[in-house]
Design goal:
Length: 184
Amino acid sequence: MASRIAPWSVVAEHRRLDLHIFTLRELTLKDPRDGREHPRVTLECPDWVNVVALTDDRRVVLVRQFRAGILAPTLEIPGGMVDPGEAPATAAARELEEETGFRPAKLVPLGVCHPNPALQDNRLHTYLATGCVQVHGGRPDHGEDLELVVVPEAELGALVARGEISHALVLSAFYFAGLGRPVG
């Protein structure tokens, strides 16, 4: 679908704070309609991946992990940052194994979305991993507090409907995979 909105130009950019997982930028943008300048603050972030992982018996591999933003654990699918120079598919397989100890027989790209385009410049690459087999207990990164949760695929809709899975990027991944939609 064509857009009538013309791109805004960057008049000035200042990288203010590099915090490894993101860099805070202050931008001055020019509105092409009237030439007026507008300040904006954005986050420059690496791309992310997440993985809808299924075993041969149609069980979904999830992780429950503590999230500092809400100071509580969330139930979600494995995922994380794409390292510099790393292909998203490689990052997806790596994150799946690090967080859960599962390896896929097959990894298929499902889709790409922008996690928060109002603020961030990155993309989220979602993959479907099938034929997943657990090869070890997982090797989470330092500072990650993870619990492995494996549920039948048929239970996803109820987990979403009850709000037990509420992470927006996980819900996006389920949409790409055609999973977890509440009935009704």
